[in-house]
User: Fold this.
Amino acid sequence: MPTAQFQIHRPHRALRYINAAIGIALLAAAGAVYWFVYRALPQTSGTIAAPVSQRVTIARDALGVPHISAASEDDVFFAQGYVAAQDRLFQMDGLRRLAGGDLSEIVGAGALELDRDSRRLRMRRIAEMAYVSLSPQDRAPLAAYARGVNYFIETHLHALPVEFTLLGYEPRPWSVVDTILIGLHMYRDLTTSWKDEILKRDMRAAGDRAKVDFLFPPRSGGELQPGSNAWAVGGAHTASGKPLLCDDMHLAYSIPGIWYMVHLRAPGLDVSGVSLPGTPSVIVGHNQRIAWGVTNLQFDVQDLYIENFDPGTGRYLYRGQWEQAREEREIIRVKGAPAVEMPLWITRHGPLYINDAKERLALRWAAAEPGSFQFPFPELNRAGNWQEFTRALARFPGPAQNFVYADVDGNIGYHATGLLPIRKGYTGDVPVDGSSGENEWQGFIPFDRLPAFYNPPAGVIVTANQNPFPPDYAYAVNGNFASHYRSRQIRNLLMARNGWRAQDMLTVQKDVYSSFFQHLAQAIVEAYDRHKAQHGDLAQAENAVQLLRGWDGQMDKDAAAPLIVTLAYERLKVLVAQSASPAVGARYKYQMAPAVIETLLRTRPAGWFADWDETLLLAVAQGLEDGRRKQGRDPGHWIYGKYEPLLLANAVGRHLPLVAGLFDIGPVEMSGSPTTVKQYNGELGPSMRLDADLADWDHSLLEGTTGQSGQVLSRHYKDQWERYYNAESFPMQFRKVEAKDVLTLTP
Assistant:
């Protein structure tokens, strides 16, 4: 009987033990989440003692945007560094490590090639040299910002963002050099053009030089001056009679996004917009009198030099004389493995960026020029008119940018900026001989000779990364400029009506019409019809061609036609490039390629193909096979958005078991293409949207991609995503700030 009783109650006891174990595990998990994640969330209300000269107020609105009010610029930049570290410290640390070549130290050998690339460019050495040459006026805001970051680190070593715990390290103190490094990271991202030089050189060597040169034009012929993805509209076209200024910089997606929204107030300073995590001031935004936007100029500021180099001695030939290269040795620390030593030779042209048995190519880069670094953004943030604005821009070294301007007095303007090399006798489009001394830079184009516009008669300035330099420009022009499709569409939309308001500009920023792809679709239909009349049906293409008939050119994520024409374009681009350079053409990738393809389709020159229609239909057939492998036999069921869906993956969380994906966004289907105003290519898209209303700043709109915070449990980690995805945006609080939390820093 006792045995039977034991058998009856044993399952109940086992169940209690299991439930208890589960409860303990859940409590332990909750405790771990609290200790390592929730506890690291920033303090956003109350009072904190800090090394400031006077009281600083940090009021956060419903999006978590800090509105900082201080009695001095030194204090306001200190507070900006502090709040940026509260929300984005791990991102900031990752950016400085990526730029400085120190990622392997925390993640292991998988990051070695990234580190080697940064070391080959000498990024940290350039940043250190720039620091030494900084003027006191430029150093002061950078130093104040660094003090703010460091104060956060010093007081929160016990409660750092969870990524530091998972990777098992503590962030080192922040320095001005780290801020310069992050600026150099952006510089590198926006000016790396040497790969185009290698590609063009290789295609020339393996093919028809004239054809290859045709594939790499510096302009498409349809440019509207000036160039990049921002615009300003004068009061004659707006409902208020005052200008509107819009900007949506196109950069690689990430979570958190690359921009951090902030509002800074101090005597003589009242500016709001987006900042780059790790750097002080506002990069794009407005103050009480002016608004501005920036996008990439895309001018070529890198040259590769073929060096006659002796690897045994480190000597190289220059103008008939042997010169000694300087050897530097980089030590890359690698987590879980021995450190890697990396020798690097430096010639008068720069580091031997490519140094192997086949060739020795030194890279000259404008960012590495001695004394080239200045930090004019505090001055720009205080500017109140065009003269003060351009005076600040004259000190801007790079990356070369297009700045678009508007002010409350009704003026609009544009100015190209940056250190742009003067080349004589060559354009820098392919590697050049470094030993002759005949291919040296002749300084930089003077600021007052760069493209600029002020109050153009049409009352509209449209930019979209196209070439802004006139055909008869006094200096040689080279760069990976965009074709004219986006700029033309923006201008067409803006000039189609008047009475624009800030909210209306979102319809332009989310526009996904592509005149290029619509033209290509029509060309395919016409080629098919001619072939059908002569040879009969092409059964395998009939359904696809019918989907292209009458298609309106909208690169809509839910439609099939955009995918059909995109796949055909990718195949046609290869066929064209292989006609120019059979062995290398498959590597062809260039921003101007759509304009090149359209020109060829319109003119159909001899010498490329025996029959252009047959070539076009071959590209369609190949593209259809690509699509069928991915989305099934029937093109009518294809979905363009599934071709290149967007995944915003948390850098650390994506590698964790059980929770991988919880902190990601996507995959999501995206509309748009490289030739639409809303540019999208699978990795790159609008990184923010600004719509500034010069009649009433509080009617302006601003949004990022995901959220203000990089902390996964913050309510601001991805609270902007849905509105960003639908291009709905948020009011940009300026004069009237609705504070949800207020934190005070006291001396």
In short: The CA atoms of residues 42 and 86 lie 5 Å apart. The first strand starts at residue 46 and ends at 49. The radius of gyration is 28 Å.
